[in-house]
Amino acid sequence: MPSPSSLPTIGIDFGTSNSAVACRVDGVARLLPIEGTATTLPTAIFFNAEDRTTHFGREAVALYLSGVEGRLMRSLKSLLGSTLMQEKTAVYDGLVSFEDIIARFLRELAARAGRELGRIPEQVVIGRPVHFVDDDSKRDERAEESLRHAARAAGFRDVAFQLEPIAAAFDYEQRITKESVVLIVDIGGGTSDFTVVRVGPDRATRTDRSDDVLATSGVHIGGTDFDQRLNLERVMPEFGFRHHGPQGREVPSKVFFELSSWHLINWLYAAKAVRQAKELRTSYADTQLHDRLMTVLEERHGHRIASAVEQAKIDASVTDVQTSIDLSCAEPGLTATLSPADMAQQLSAQLENVIACAHACVKRAGLRSGDLDAIYLTGGSSALRPFQHALRRSFAGVNLVEGDLFGGVATGLACATPQRRRT
Length: 423
Description:
Elements: E1 10-13, E2 18-25, E3 28-31, E4 41-42, E5 44-48, E6 53-56, H1 57-65, E7 70-74, E8 88-91, E9 94-97, H2 98-117, E10 123-128, H3 137-153, E11 158-163, H4 164-173, E12 180-187, E13 192-199, E14 213-219, H5 223-235, H6 254-259, H7 271-278, H8 287-298, H9 302-319, E15 323-326, E16 335-338, H10 340-364, E17 374-378, H11 385-394, E18 400-402, H12 408-415
Parallel strand pairs: 1-10, 10-11, 12-17, 17-18
Antiparallel strand pairs: 1-2, 2-3, 2-4, 5-6, 5-7, 8-9, 12-13, 13-14, 15-16
């Protein structure tokens, strides 16, 4: 463990769903335990209104799901670049901006890293997606600037940025023994990012690696989008999505899109939103569906259902069999199902866009898929079985290498020298 005088720069992978921290000591990058022995921390904050305390990560989610009164916030990264960043929202200690909430989360990461390193670090390289916001360079710049302000407010004196897929390339480079041309695939909670890069043991010692990056691309589709789609199509029909009322008209769908989007669920618990949901009752032919919807909103079960959908996605992907989604919080005995075939069907359009972005990156590098030595997977959502199947079909014959899905980017960020940072 380094002394305070030689405290290294840390790398922070601030993710939509999970975050990780790494440092490099004596030339070796390692992940830091930041929640017990775990090296990942769910990107979640819970403002406990009962005892006026703030909680993070798994503890935050557990307290919320246990029924403790308060405000849970997740998917904060998805707000970067939006007009919401400077708006204020109410928590137990008053009105705070979303930028300040991100700063609180980064400050907590710094404090936890400091407990491992002996002193809170002041220098950080933070990962960023290729695009925070698709097709809008000004909003993208604004997103990075907001994250920089939040990091400085969190106590970091020296803040630099690096593209997340390039950081993953640095991590992959530590694993190989010969020069290779690799497509780095980083599927996170909010974005899918790609980089074609030359890597190898000899190149790893070079100070300037700019010529090794052949192309980058990215699209604003990730794990939370997959979850939202599966929630909407497999669960929300149990509450009235696409249900037709007595006059033959569909129940207005806005409430279902918001209820299936983690970062929007809290807005549905406001008195005005609940009142508007009650007014939908006349739009239902089967009022039992409306009763379920109101139970979810009035008893605040939206995040519980979203978590159940996310877990079902993971289970169906890992086991390759149909899994059940527990909806008993809305009605005793109520369930929905999710099979691998359902998942592949519902996600096909999104996965097609992600795969197209990967091919565009290879083409931008002046290569064909057969010119690649490997495809390196990182980011938790890259483990999704339908995605891997689609990638293998589309890049036939190219070796898929699964890296540290949750820690590879942070490890690569810790390897970044000042010349490798995005400033």
